Structure formats: structure tokens, C-alpha cells
Amino acid sequence: MKKILLIVIKFLIISQLSFSQSVTIVPSDPVSPTKGTMDFDNVNNVIKYWDGTSWIPLSASFWRSNGNNIYNNNTGNVGIGTSNPVVPLNIYVGTNSGIARTQYQTVNTGILPTDGFFTGIANFGMNAFVVNYENAGLIFGTNGNANMKIDEIGNVGIGTITPLAALHVQNKSVLFNGLNNFFGIPPVSPPVSGKGNRTLWYAEKAAFRTGGVYNNSIFGFPDADTTNFHNWDKDSIGVFSFASGFNTKAKGDFSVAMGHRSFAIGNASATFGHNNVSKGNFSLTAGFGNLALGQSSTAFGNYSVALGDNSFASGEFITSSGNDATAFGANTEASGNFSTAFGNSTTASGANSTAMGRNATTNNYANSFCLAGIGTNLNTSNTAPNQMMMRFDNYTFYVAGTNNYAYIIPSSNGWAYTSDRNRKENFEELNGESVLKKIAKIPFYSWNFKDKEVKQYRHYGIMAQDFYDNFGKDNLGVIGNDTTVSALNLLGVAYSGIKALEKRTKDLQNQNEILIAEIAELKVLILPKRKKYVHQKKYFVKKEELITLK
After folding, report:
1. What residue spans define the domains of the chain?
2. Which of 218, 260, 349, 418 has its CA 20 to 30 A from that of 324?
3. CA triplet 64, 65, 69: central angle to 5 degrees?
């Protein structure tokens, strides 16, 4: 009560000093008060004044001014629009159309409500505002440093007050966290779905998207298809996936899709380029129009297809449909398991088969090998399993450098060997008679190999040990070895023997000619005597016949 009396006395003194003859103190609740009339309410213990319409109570804790400061005498909280401030400065607007705001203005900003800088909150929509009405930025800082700025056109700079893009981070790291339970609670949809250009971090799946999804009408083509609109919707985004470009899709978990309309459907699959599909788990495509369906399959190039598990296709119009099959080149196909096709228009259709070159096919035979390099369009095909088939205009095999080789010349039916005198040296002519004697010592057998698979096949020939013992060395070095026989060495020995036999034949012919001449000379000497002998013989025969008759 004492405090209230002091307030009343103080108020009266101030009133006398400031508002002489303008304030009247009346008994409690006068019937017809006039504006400025003051009243003490005995019930609520408060002083009130009449503002011409209603009684306005005076707070028991009076506001004080001290220099340039103003504060509440009781708690230190200042209330604007409220008599019960709960924070040091509490601004309250009691109408639905108002905005609780603070406004900062200078001599250069103007004094209109749309000048300067203000913060506030609106009753409608409950939106809060931090607005600079001037053509200038907003700077945020700590520790005396300007750390972030929103410039006058809305660009945000972090670590710089001169941002060059909508978001400009200067020499700072950027962190986007995601959830940890990726395979547990079903994730919510991404913040935006459907068509459009965007860069999106989908935290619920720790997935990233950048580029756009549309239909072909964006390029001016009449295309009503809208399926690509959903390539970046929730059900088309794999956990930990990445997609960039135009109409790409990374649906598999841990998948990557980059380029134009390339889809990574399998888990941990990847695709790069245009119109590719990596559907198998761990599959990979790159290029144009490629398809990898098998697990861990790979398709590169243009229109290559890898259907088998662990298959590989690379080139143009390639198909690798067998498991663990490999195909390279153009128009090649490896359809057999563990098969390989290389070149142009080759087919490895048998298991474990290989087709190489041009127009070569293993013809569904397993463990076969077909190699064709002929320049025409002739097809070359295996005719049995475990077979090697080759077709070329010619064959050339080099041994130990470029000077020693064997080959088959075009249209020939046998091997030819390097035998150019200009490529040889250290000549030593064989003694033909010696060669014939050595040949005579070499046994000649019929035989078969010990391997069970070929034991039934019999052969004729000599043994390498016998040939090496007789012809394995000359005066200058070693020739061959004791386990193999070179056909060319056999020919050399044979020709040397033939030459010796030819010499023998020539010598015999010469001797025969001498004998023939000697016989002719004898005929000249003997023939007249023979005629005389024949005449005499006839005489004696006749005479003998006459004697017999008598």
C-alpha cells in the first residue's frame, strides 16, 4: 500500500509539473468521467485514467528513463503491444493482418515502410522475414568476419562477399548428410518428382541426380511418351546411386548412369553414353545402343549385346550370348559357353570354340577353332568337334626373326620353305655315297604313338634318334635334335641320296654304253664266222641224214 501511495504522489507531482490543470483525481468509478480523469481502483489496487472511451490502468512498475536507455522497472523485459513481455524485447501484434516487425532506416534509405531493413513475422501464414528493401545485400558474419552474403540479385556467397553464382562456396568444403537406415524404413519421396531440370541430393537414399528428364518434345519432335518423366522419381532411384545427363535412370542400388537415356537397372551396374541399358547385376555398358543383360556382363561400342553371365561384347552389332563368352569386332557372335569370336561376321557357336577373321564359324562344334582371312565372301566352317579349320590366300610362318619362314603360296597345295641362297651361308656339300651308306643303316618301321587316344592309328617312318645319330652333326655344328625330325632336313638328306644314286646310275649307263660298243665290235667279228658255221652245220646235218638212210 505504501508503494502505491508513493506512486500516486509521484504521479501527481509530475502531473502538476507537466500537465498543470489537465489531470483530476476523483473517487472510485465516477459516473461520468472526463478525459484525463484519474481514479484509484480499490479492488485491483491500481491507478487508472479515462482516455475518453475506457479506463486504462497504470502499471505498478513504472517505466524509467536513464540517459538514452528505457527499461521495465520490474523485470527488465520490454513489451511492445503486450503488457506481459517474456523476453528482453517482446513485440506483439494483436490483429490477423498485422506484421510484428522491427525496421532499421538511415538518412540514405528513406523513411517509408518499404525502405531500409526489417525483420518480422506475419500473422497470416506465420512467415518470418529478414528483408533488405534496398538494392544491396545481406551480410552474415561471426567473430568480426563476413562469412556469408546474399547479394542484391539473390546469389549466395559462403566464404566470399562477391558471389558469382546462385550458390558460390569459396575455398570451403560442402557436406550433404544422409540417413543410415537405407534398407529399413521405406523412404519418403524425393522433394520433387516428374519432368524438369534439377540437381538433387536425395538424402533418404543417399542418391544424387543432376541434369533433366523430359520427352523428345523438348527437341521439337512430336513425342507424346511421358515415361521418362519418372526416371528420377522415388521408385526409379537406387540406394547410393548416381545419375547425370538427360533422361538417365540409375534404378539399381549402387548404380551409375551418365549420358542420354541410358539406364542402369541392375545392382552395382553402370552405363555411359546414349540409349544403353545395364540390366544385369554388376553389368557395364558404354557407347550407343548397347545392352548388358547377364550378370557381370559388359557391352561396349554400337548396338553390342552381352546376354550371358560374365560375357563381354565390344564393337558394332556384337552379340555375346554364351556364359563367359567374348566377342569383338563387327557383326560377330559368341553364343557358345566360354567361346570367343573376333573380327568381321564371325560366329563361335560351339562350347569352348573360337572363331577369328572374316566369315568364320565354328558351326556349333565344341572345342573347335576356325580362322579365316581370305579376302572374298567365302564362308569357312568347322566340320567336326575338336577341329582346327583355317582358310587364307596364303600362309607364312616366321621362325627366329624374319629370315626363316614357311608358307603356302596362293593356289598351292603344300608348304614352301625359305631356301633363298642369298639368305644362307656356310655351305658344305654332302658326300652322296656317305649319305647312302647312312640311309642304309637307318631302320624303317611301322609304328603308333603311345597315347591311348591315338593308339589305334598306325604309321610308317623312321625314329628321330636314328636320324640324329647319322645326320645330327656336320663339320660346323649341330643339326636338329634326337626327338624331332624336320621335313626339310629329311628332304635335304633324300635329295643328297638321290643325287648319289643318280651318279651311280650315270656311271652304270656309261659302263653299259662301253659294253654295248664292245659287243657290237664282237658281232662284227663273230657274225661271218657264225654264218659259215651255220652253213657247215646244215651240211653236216644233211650228211648225217643221208648216212642214216643207208
Report:
1. 1-60, 138-169
2. 260
3. 120
SS (H, E, C) 38-77: EEEECCCCEEEEECCCCEEEECCCCCEEECCEEECCCCCC
Q: Is 195 exposed, middle or buried (0-12, 13-18, 19+ CB in 10 A)?
A: middle
How far the first Cα of the chain sits from its last, in Å, is 219
Q: What is the distance, to the nearest Å, from the Cα of residue 153 to the centroid of all Cα atoms in its chain?
A: 41
Nearest 5 degrees, angle CA 474-CA 475-CA 481? Answer: 30
Tell me the Ramachandran region of residue 164: left when phi exceeds 0, alpha when psi lies from -120 to 50, beta otherwise: alpha
Render pLDDT for 358-416 as a digit per residue (tens, 0 to 9): 999 999 999 999 999 876 678 899 999 999 998 887 777 776 666 666 777 776 677 77
**C-alpha cell recorded at residue 250:** 540409375
What the block records as the C-alpha cell of 129 is 522475414
User: Cell digits for 217?
Assistant: 518434345
**293 is written with which cell numbers?**
543383360
User: What are 470's three cell numbers?
Assistant: 647319322
pLDDT band for position 549 (50/70/90)? low
Dihedral sign computed on CA atoms, order 219, 301, 349, 326? negative
| Spatial separation of the C-alpha atoms in residues 253 and 238, rounded to whole Å | 4
Contact between 299 and 306 (Cβ < 8 Å): yes
What is d(CA 176, CA 190) in angstroms, rounded to the nearest whole number? 15
- Picking from 90, 357, 198, 158, the residue whose alpha carbon sits closest to that of residue 348 is 357
The structure's pTM equals: 0.65
Q: DSSP character for 117? A: E
Q: Round to whole Å and give the CA distance between 199 and 333.
A: 41
- Say if residues 352 and 370 touch (Cβ distance below 8 Å): no
Q: Which amino acid is at 243?
A: A
Place of cell 660346323: 476
**Quick check: helix, strand or coil at residue 540?**
helix
Secondary structure percentages of the chain, helix, strand, coil, to 5: 20, 30, 50
Residue whose grid cell is 533433366: 212
Return the residue matching grid coordinates 544422409. Answer: 178
Q: 10 pLDDT exceeds 70?
A: no
How many alpha carbons fall within 13 Å on the CB side of residue 398?
Answer: 4
DSSP H helix total and E strand total for the chain: 4, 43
For the chain, how many residues are written? 550
CA-to-CA dists, residue 441 to 182, 435, 448, 474, angstroms:
87, 10, 22, 18
Secondary element (H or E) of residue 37: strand 37-41
Phi, psi of 506 (to 5 degrees): -65, -40
Q: In the predicted model, what is the mean pLDDT of the chain?
A: 84
86: left (phi over 0), alpha (psi -120 to 50) or beta: alpha
**8 A C-beta contact, residue 238 and residue 267:** yes
Query: Residue 224 in contact with residue 215, Cβ under 8 Å?
Result: yes
From residue 536, give the alpha-carbon distance in Å to each of 157, 523, 541, 544. 151, 19, 9, 12
